[in-house]
Amino acid sequence: MSTPFYVSPQQAMADRAEYARKGIARGRSLVVLQYADGIVFVGENPSRALHKFSEIYDRIGFAAAGKYNEYENLRIGGVRYADLRGYTYDRGDVTARGLANVYAQTLGTIFSSVGEKPYEVELVVAEVGETPEQDQIYRLPHDGSIVDEHGSVAVGGNAEQISGYLDQRHRDGMTLAEALKLAVQALSRDTNGSEREIPAERLEVAVLDRTRPQKRKFKRIEGRALVRLLEAGSADAEPTSGGDVE
């Protein structure tokens, strides 16, 4: 009778974590930034049908990097949780912190389970408040931990390099055009330090806009509206002497 191969619990968890991190790193990066009027989500996504960003509830947005089928299951579960809680109690009882706790429990259970592989996903749950100080951004890695972020956050791909770039350049009170330009600049940087151009049609952009009069603050920005914002951001960064730019 052969002796069963023994792996220490510490080594088993380290292997699972490395497996999940490698899977997440193969995906394209995305960034979430605060700006003066809300929170903007920006990512490179050539697909027009498979979204990285989605609305969860009135003031809550969802972003994910990694395997699409896995984070789509989590997104659907989050929508169901939010709808049920809002219907059972009150719409104000649905919060990003509560949703992040639910996701953390799910991811943590899957990560520690021996019977199935860990999810190759990293999530961001954001809620826009009445003021910038009330905005909430939570990052949830594959192991179910919760990281309370402020200002900016990057996940997927070369997230560590992008986060360092954003930390040095992001500031409070940026306009949407300025925040969008910064996000695209960060995403355009390759791991070797060179830059590449990301055309507007390959960008997925959404915002939680606190100035919208309706309860639902999430909206997508695409097409000509996105192009105009990108041009406005470039004009703000490099003013010319040819007059004002609308």
From TrEMBL:
GO terms for biological process: modification-dependent protein catabolic process; proteasomal protein catabolic process. Keywords: Cytoplasm, Hydrolase, Proteasome. InterPro entries: Ntn_hydrolases_N, Proteasome_alpha, Proteasome_alpha-type, Proteasome_asu_bac, Proteasome_sua/b. Pathway: Protein degradation; proteasomal Pup-dependent pathway. It comes from the Bacteria. The formation of the proteasomal ATPase ARC-20S proteasome complex, likely via the docking of the C-termini of ARC into the intersubunit pockets in the alpha-rings, may trigger opening of the gate for substrate entry. Interconversion between the open-gate and close-gate conformations leads to a dynamic regulation of the 20S proteasome proteolysis activity. Signal peptide: none annotated. Transmembrane segments: none annotated. It is found in: Cytoplasm. NCBIfam families: 20S_bact_alpha. The 20S proteasome core is composed of 14 alpha and 14 beta subunits that assemble into four stacked heptameric rings, resulting in a barrel-shaped structure. The two inner rings, each composed of seven catalytic beta subunits, are sandwiched by two outer rings, each composed of seven alpha subunits. The catalytic chamber with the active sites is on the inside of the barrel. Has a gated structure, the ends of the cylinder being occluded by the N-termini of the alpha-subunits. Is capped by the proteasome-associated ATPase, ARC. This is Proteasome subunit alpha. The gene is prcA.
